[in-house]
Write a structure and sequence with these properties.
The complex is a heterodimer of chains A (about 625) and B (about 120).
Chain A lengths: L5 H28 L3 H24 L9 H29 L3 H20 L3 H4 L12 E5 L3 H13 L3 E5 L2 H9 L5 E5 L7 H10 L8 E5 L4 H9 L4 E4 L4 H39 L9 H4 L4 H46 L11 E2 L3 E9 L4 E7 L4 E8 L7 H15 L9 E7 L2 E7 L3 E3 H8 L4 H20 L12 E4 L4 E3 L5 H5 L1 H4 L14 H4 L6 H17 L9 H10 L5 H4 L5 H10 L11 H10 L2
Parallel strand pairs in A: 1-2, 1-3, 3-4, 4-5
Antiparallel strand pairs in A: 6-7, 7-8, 8-9, 9-11, 10-11, 12-13, 13-14
Chain B lengths: L2 E5 L3 H13 L3 E5 L2 H10 L4 E5 L7 H10 L8 E5 L4 H10 L3 E4 L4 H14 L1
Parallel strand pairs in B: 1-2, 1-3, 3-4, 4-5
Classes of the chains: A alpha/beta (about 625), B alpha/beta (about 120).
């Protein structure tokens, strides 16, 4: 093997020492400013690692060393991994503690990129070039497999003269063992051998995940060409025929090694891509740590940029989730307080037509009445077939006398049954028994936003944002499926003890809103307080009508009053159609100005002037605060 | 406040050393290759030059020789910085006209000592 001259060795040492010098310089600088004891200790560890690396480099390519071999470089590279790891780990701690100090973070990133170069250096072309003869990579390790001693030795010596590290073995078994021990860049494999022959060895190498990337050049006699074709189909990179032509040998070996080098780069790139993908899963699982991608963020290419952008985004997402969690916690405590004062109230509600112990449709055993409204009554019941607690809502017979209305109602229920979302109360079945129409649905142990407001008055901004976010999410799903709720109001919004909001009565609201038309028949008129102008005017409604109602709910949650209040339904309707509401911020100065503005936009008279979709509202709420 | 001209082509070394010197109260100007270093040293009034030896355009040895040859900079203190920790480098640096010599990684206190010795004697 040709050794580099003394001048080349000193150049090599310079290349190897430069990143170490950077680590030392930046670490010392950070140490001067560090106050946190753990950060100081981490920086000391990085400095120790860097000094250790310097020692290793000086020993391998020290000042008075006239030459260095590829093997020594490989060994050095392995040895440098330990101090490199120490530096990288120390910097992760520093980055974790850096907080908003961008200078510290940027210096730590510089140390990380220097640490990455530390091990890259000893394999990358700049350094490899100093130990290379002009035409061939001397550091490449080649395995020659041939049963005929003359062939084997000729080939091995020729490769060594080309500057490669060549090893020769006599049969297929020995070849597999040698490759398995690792470190080979290329295999020259004789086709015809006793025992395990060339094609069989090739097949084994290509079947093994760990060895399939190593290129194999088949060595054949002129008359084996049929077999060579088969081998190339089976994954051989190239072939050589005996007797060897030195020019061809050099060219094919060189080309194969270059291809392997490029493939290795690609593999490393893909490994880093996978690392980014893993980081994405970690974000999903909530385990992503800022700075986890530091080995990649230092890259100058598109992948490095992706990793940097990703790291920033993931950190922001986590901050947003933390914010949401804290809002939900606030909401939970509001609910807990409200529940204590509403429990007794629930029990004294009038029980409707059915009483405890009654059976409905031979399947549902009534436990208790839990509510009564314009549509009918609500019961808690046991589904005796599925042994499950359900809520049953009965519908007043007067509402369903017209068979057309009944059919349309059934259509709506069919649609609503498709909605499956944690923020939607599941609708199970619709049936009729003894002249009573009823709906069964998921029973939610909780209280309505109405009850919450009645006991707590107005709510703090955090809990309101938690309600808004969940309401927007449930409407996003419903609207995507073409379902407009038409009757969003605090009575229809249930909150369980965990602060999860569930929207009730998807699909039956159309029936409820018919009440306005049925007024003359003497039925109860619901409050129009949550209805947008177009609904009050019996004009076509769409998703934006629900968003108006959301605006009223949020307004009431934040201010404790409705945007429009009046003594009679008629004057209320007139105000909804004509008046501008007072901005929530005027009634509660804790309301952030942007939130106050969003609510006013939701309350716009014309649908076109409102926030246009629930998804958009969800985005606004998510980024609020 | 003493002003130092730092001639260094490596961005990280430059960033690091200039920041560390600035923190110690020096005014630091920067040249990124040997030719620029010579031009700046001859045009400006610096108290001292820190000269990296492996530089593009003209290297640190040659830049030092040119500074020594020019009347306005013949007495300007120059400290050579080199990563080549070879025994001959020190003599070579002094021979080229450097007043002192230091190796990378820079031990800041050691370097500050050398700077102080040169400035104190000036």
């Amino acid at each position: 093997m040709k050794h580099p001259s003394a001048g080349k060795v000193s150049e090599l040492r310079h290349h190897l020492r430069t990143p170490v010098n950077h680590i030392v310089g930046y670490a010392e600088m950070l140490l001067e400013d560090a106050e946190d004891a753990e950060v100081k200790a981490a920086l000391e560890r990085a400095l120790t690692g860097a000094r250790e690396a310097l020692g290793l480099i000086d020993r391998a390519v020290g000042g008075d060393k006239p030459s260095v071999t590829a093997e020594e470089l490989m060994t050095l590279r392995e040895q440098l991994r330990t101090p490199q790891r120490a530096v990288v780990e120390a910097m992760h701690l520093v980055l974790d503690r850096a907080g908003t100090d961008t200078q510290v973070a940027s210096d730590a990133h510089r140390i990380l990129s220097a640490a990455a170069r530390l091990v890259e250096q000893s394999t990358e072309p700049t350094v490899a070039a100093t130990v290379k003869r002009p035409m061939a990579g001397t550091s490449a390790r080649i395995l020659v497999v041939d049963d005929v001693e003359d062939n084997r030795e000729v080939l091995r010596r020729r490769l060594e003269r080309e500057g490669y590290a060549a090893t020769a073995v006599v049969d297929g078994e020995a070849a597999l063992a040698a490759v398995a021990s690792g470190g080979y860049d290329l295999v020259l494999l004789d086709v015809l051998m006793p025992g395990l022959d060339g094609p069989a060895v090739l097949e084994r190498l290509k079947a093994d995940r760990d060895t399939r990337h190593i290129p194999v050049i088949m060595i054949s006699a002129m008359n084996d060409l049929q077999v060579v074709v088969h081998c190339i189909e089976a994954g051989a990179a190239d072939y050589l025929t005996k007797p060897f032509d030195p020019v061809l040998l050099r060219a094919r070996v060189g080309a194969c090694l270059e291809q392997k080098r490029l493939r290795d780069q690609e593999r490393e790139y893909l490994a880093q891509v996978n690392f980014v993908i893993e980081a994405a899963s970690a974000v999903e699982g909530g385990t992503y740590k800022a700075g986890a991608l530091d080995a990649i963020t230092g890259r100058g290419d598109a992948l490095g940029k992706l990793a940097r952008v990703f790291d920033t985004m993931a950190t922001q997402v986590r901050a947003r989730e933390d914010r949401l969690r804290s809002r939900v916690r606030d909401l939970q405590s509001e609910i807990a307080v409200a529940r204590r004062s509403t429990q007794s109230q629930t029990l004294i509600l009038d029980g409707g037509n059915l009483v405890s112990g009654d059976h409905l449709a031979g399947r549902y055993e009534i436990i208790e009445a839990i509510g009564r409204g314009g549509m009918g009554a609500v019961y808690r019941a046991r589904d005796t077939e599925l042994e499950e607690i359900v809520a049953i809502k009965t519908v007043r017979p007067e509402l369903l006398t017209d068979p057309v209305v009944v059919e349309r109602f059934k259509d709506e229920i069919r649609l609503a049954r498709r909605l499956t979302h944690r923020n939607v109360v599941r609708t199970h079945d619709f049936g009729e028994f003894g002249g009573v129409y009823y709906l069964t649905m998921e029973f939610v142990e909780g209280i309505t936003v109405r009850e919450l407001l009645d006991t707590r008055g107005r709510l703090a901004v955090g809990p309101v944002l938690a309600i808004a976010a969940q309401l927007a999410e449930s409407l996003t799903l419903a609207h995507e499926q073409g379902i407009v709720h038409r009757d969003i109001k605090p009575q229809n919004l249930l909150l369980d003890a965990d602060g999860v909001l569930k929207v009730m009565d998807f699909g039956i609201a159309r029936l409820a809103t018919r009440r306005a038309e049925l007024t003359e028949a003497g039925l109860v008129v619901g409050t129009p307080a949550y209805m947008p102008p177009e609904q009050l005017l019996a004009e076509p409604v769409d998703a934006r009508s629900d968003l108006y109602a959301v605006g009223v709910v949020l307004y009431e949650c934040l201010t404790g009053i409705l945007p429009f209040e009046a003594d009679s339904p008629i004057s209320l309707i007139a105000r909804v159609l004509n008046d501008a509401p007072r901005p929530p911020i005027e009634l509660n100065d804790e309301v952030p100005a942007p939130l106050s503005e969003v609510i006013l936009r939701l309350l716009a008279k014309k649908p076109a002037d409102r926030v246009q979709t629930a998804a958009e509202l969800a985005r606004i709420v998510q980024s609020a605060g | 406040m003493a002003s130092i001209l730092l001639v260094e082509d490596n961005e990280m070394n430059r960033d690091m050393l200039s920041r560390r010197l600035t923190r110690r109260g020096f005014e630091v100007a920067i040249a990124t290759d040997g030719r620029q270093g010579v031009d700046m040293a001859r045009a400006g009034h610096y108290d001292l030059v820190l000269m990296d030896m492996s530089l593009p355009e003209i290297d640190g040895w040659e830049a030092t020789r040119q500074l020594r040859a020019a009347p306005e900079t013949q007495d300007l203190p120059i400290i050579a910085l080199t990563a080549h920790a070879m025994s001959g480098d020190r003599d070579k640096a002094l021979e080229a006209g450097c007043n002192d010599y230091d190796t990378k990684p820079v031990d800041l206190d050691r370097l500050l000592g050398k700077i102080a010795a040169l400035l104190g004697g000036a």
